[in-house]
Design goal:
Strand order of the largest sheet of chain A: 1-2-4-3
Number of helices of chain B: 2
Largest sheet of chain A: 4 strands, antiparallel
Protein name (chain A): PTS system N-acetylglucosamine-specific IIB component
Keywords (chain A): Kinase, Phosphotransferase system, Sugar transport, Transferase, Transport
Pfam family, one (chain A): PTS_EIIB
Helix content of chain B: under 10%
Shape of chain A: globular
Number of strands of chain B: 14
Order of helices and strands of chain B: EEHEEEEEEEEHEEEE
Oligomer: heterodimer
Largest interface: A-B, 14 and 16 residues
Strand content of chain A: 25-35%
Radius of gyration of chain A: 11 Å
Strand order of the largest sheet of chain B: 9-5-6-7-11-3-2-13
CATH architecture of chain A: 2-Layer Sandwich
Structural class of chain B: mainly beta
Helix content of chain A: 25-40%
Distance between the termini of chain B: 8 Å
InterPro entries (chain A): Glu_permease_IIB, PTrfase_EIIB_Cys, PTS_Glucose_EIICBA, PTS_IIB_1
Number of domains of chain A: 1
CATH topology of chain B: Glucose Permease (Domain IIA)
GO molecular function (chain A): kinase activity; protein-N(PI)-phosphohistidine-sugar phosphotransferase activity; protein-phosphocysteine-sugar phosphotransferase activity
Number of domains of chain B: 1
CATH architecture of chain B: Distorted Sandwich
Distance between the termini of chain A: 21 Å
Chain lengths: 78, 154
């Protein structure tokens, strides 16, 4: 079954062109972006994020224990 | 599992600390589940598995063990320690391996983590559990590695 979350999350982060680096860390995606201001927090939450922490161009998206798998799927979309 | 409570053992020895005091909102706001934290004693030691089960996620600084009933426990060795990229952590296991409660998983030294500028506190999270389902050891008390830390009812 196709999981739509990786695509939705990537779109909410501003798309592949906006992603410098993305890494799964147990419960969260650590994302380094070109431009942190375009992140759509509501869309991230709709895609299943429990929380979003922004610090400039670094955004952490808390997605739960599947973070590593989701990060790999997003890597495949980049 | 019905009836009996799962026992979650302490992965490290130290002082039982409220999750709310962990300096990371993912844990302090219980975004991935409720639990408890342990402020570890300094000195090189092995962090052990809190339950019998299978290692579903293994990083140098954190791991998840899922019991046969699907209940999973996350152990995170320090805060932001992903940035240490494994330095100072010695893995004794691989992803997918079966472990017993009390089995050594990662060797590390909380003092070295602190010296590197990170908080060595160890959140122990009952993933996707309800807060009411957990009973935790009293904050401020000392636990030895392998001591009962949480009981988890459904």
């Amino acid at each position: 079954m196709a999981d739509e979350r990786p695509g939705q999350i990537l779109a909410a982060l501003g798309g592949a062109d906006n992603v410098v680096e993305i890494e799964g860390c147990i419960t969260r995606l650590r994302c380094e972006l070109e431009d942190g201001s375009v992140v759509d927090e509501a869309a991230l939450k709709q895609a299943g994020a429990h929380g979003v922490m922004k610090s400039g161009a670094v955004v952490q998206v808390v997605v739960g224990p599947e973070a590593d798998a989701i990060a790999e799927d997003i890597q495949d979309l980049l | 599992m019905t009836g009996a409570a799962r026992v979650v053992c302490s992965p490290v020895g130290g002082t039982v600390t409220a999750l709310a005091d962990v300096p990371d909102p993912v844990f302090s706001q219980a975004m991935v589940g409720p639990g408890i934290a342990v402020e570890p004693r300094d000195g090189h030691a092995d962090a052990v598995s809190p339950i019998d089960g299978t290692l579903t996620t293994v990083h140098a600084h954190a791991f998840v063990v899922a019991g046969d009933d699907g209940a999973a426990v996350l152990v995170h060795l320090g805060i932001d320690t992903v940035k240490q990229q494994g330095e100072g952590f010695t893995l004794h296991v691989v992803k997918g391996e079966r472990v017993r409660a009390g089995q050594p998983v990662v060797g590390w030294d909380p003092a070295a983590v602190r010296a590197a500028g990170y908080a060595p506190i160890v959140p122990v999270i009952a993933l996707d559990a309800q807060q009411e389902a957990l009973r935790a050891a009293e904050t401020g008390t000392e636990v030895a590695v392998g001591d009962e830390l949480l009981t988890w009812n459904d």
